[in-house]
Predict the 3D structure of the following.
Amino acid sequence: MTTLPLVFEAPRRGMPPSHLADLSRAQRREAVAALGLPAFRADQLSRQYFGRLRADPAEMSDLPAGVREQLREALLPPLVTPVTEQTCDGGRTRKTLWSGHDGVRAESVLMGYPDRATVCVSSQVGCGMACPFCATGQGGLRRNLSCAEIVEQVRQAAAAARDGALGEPTRLSNVVFMGMGEPLANYRRVVDAVRRITEPAPDGLGISARGVTVSTVGLVPAINKLAGEGLAVTLAVSLHTPDDELRDTLVPVNSRWKVSEVLSAARRYADATGRRVSIEYALIRDVNDQPWRAEKLGKLLRERLTTRLVHVNLIPLNPTPGSEWDASPLPVQEEFVDRVRAAGVACTVRDTRGREIAAACGQLAADS
Ligand code: SAH
């Protein structure tokens, strides 16, 4: 019997100071007024931060020099401080290890493609979900990230892409919550961050909700709640196998919410938003890669979600240190894809960006 990692309540310990990106537009105006400054200063700050992607008041020439320090202290404390940057894939993948105000370490990964640029962000430091094949899951949960810590990862990635970090200056178009942590276990802050990321500037960063993906182990009540938020983000569900017996071990939270309940919640989400749900499936050699599982998966998804509302994303397992598990051989992977497709379900294989710098799916595990 697997015990449920109980991490749904936010440990407040270590949370960072409040930041501009934690606040709605109205709250920013209130915060500026509380400093004895005119409310329009909040709009100036917002245009600088969300529109021009600047976080250093020294660079904000429309603000009087005399108030810049005051605004930095109150609203722009440095929360996400890059420690190291590593690149690979010919400069098209860039991992940032960063430090929080309390010294915790987390990671984000920026990836350039011919048609888009994507940042993979962390939502927690560590993770409490304990999936045995995932590097982040091995160390447990350290703390939640604040809304602003999440938004800051995106702002910094957008500024880096704009400034040519991927080669050509590029506009950041996609944000995936597939870094460290379980986003729906840090629900309120993640939803606030999604709003800030998708609202048009100067309220937010102006990235289309269609370009944002929230990935979850399948926390059913949180999926149901997300369906009612009026956010058209893509939901990704880390299923990894169609049967409860194996899923109980691969995704321990399955002992609480079974495959069937998770798929019902995914269906409700798809119906509420009109968005196709992405089913994540890390293909593990001799563990979940059998042809019968591919058939069962295809049939189950077709029945429960309809072929119109689902897409399977196969992730060749990225081996993590100390694990005996490995990716499936290519012919096995190809047969798996064919069998899912034979059920009428769309299925693609995720590229394995960042493997050599331990920046690929499930490899993020910063020492802290
Ligand atoms: N907690 C969220 C986000 C985590 S990471 C979730 O579980 O969905 C995003 C995806 O990477 C998840 O589908 C996760 O299961 C997968 N993943 C984790 N470790 C992996 C590994 N070693 N190889 C391949 N995929 C992995």
User: Anything to note?
Assistant: The mean pLDDT is 93.
